[in-house]
Amino acid sequence: MLGVAVAAALGGGGLIVARMNSGGAPATALTAGGAALAAAVAPPVSAPAGPSAADLAAADRAKQVEQLDAALRKLAGGTPDFSVAVLDRRTGQSYHYRGKVRFDTASIVKVQILTCMLLRAQDAGRRPTSAEMALAKPMIRRSDNDATTRLYNRLGGRTAVTRCNKRLGLTGTVVNSRWGLTRTTAADQVRLLAELADTRGPLSASSRKTAFTLMNTVDKAQDWGVPAVARKGEIFTVKNGWDTRSADGGLWAVNTIGRITAKNGAVDVSVAVLSHNNRTMAAGVTLVEKIAKLTRTHLRY
């Protein structure tokens, strides 16, 4: 036989009614208000949180870098010395493999000389003169050495270009009075390429356009290197450098720097690949193009 043993009011809540069952054990029943109170006191049960979109993106990027590092280390085991740097202007992400190791520039230094010429004209409140452009055009499009020497000396040579490089943030570059023996890093070269495109950088819109036009119209025989990475419909700029020196036993330094863009803005990537001790120029070209292609395969830009 059931009987009510206790009835107590809970402040602001319902009643908890305790009954005795026929066996003498208490049986507790909760009114609606009491159930609400019990639910409020009980700890919430939630599903475990998964990784955020940012966490997933960071993990994917780390995997890309790890795989590219591995591919380049494997390549480096049987090839001449090289370094590479990549800067994706859309995401702000950069990648370096031995990016701060110095290499001879050979003719890629001509982009630095061009940039310094453009800045000097800007500082004087003018556009480049016809005489300056008459040297700059063959310097970039045909890699004309005589035109380069004349423009380099006209700017003020090593002292002037060193001062200009500091302004551009090229902290790892050491200018030589013989401009082709200037030493630079892949990291510095992608920084230079970024300055040629940065609307907030030191170059005016007119100067950026001049640099783009020249580097986008190099002689067909010299559009190897970075352009090998471009896909159909994409736009490239490029400047290559190649040189053989008796000091290196007649082996070749072969370098390529440039930028790949798409009209729809889906791609905006600068790439610099530097190498030396190549057996032939052709072997060096094959190497730098292979390295550039590996960066696109693994970084998926």
From TrEMBL:
Keywords, comma-separated and alphabetical: Hydrolase
InterPro entries the UniProt entry points to: Beta-lactam/transpept-like, Beta-lactam_cat, Beta-lactam_class-A
GO MF annotation: an example: hydrolase activity
Domain (Beta-lactamase class A catalytic): residue spans on this chain: 135-219
PANTHER family the record matches: BETA-LACTAMASE, BETA-LACTAMASE-TYPE TRANSPEPTIDASE FOLD CONTAINING PROTEIN
The protein's name in its UniProt record: Serine hydrolase
Organism: Actinoplanes flavus
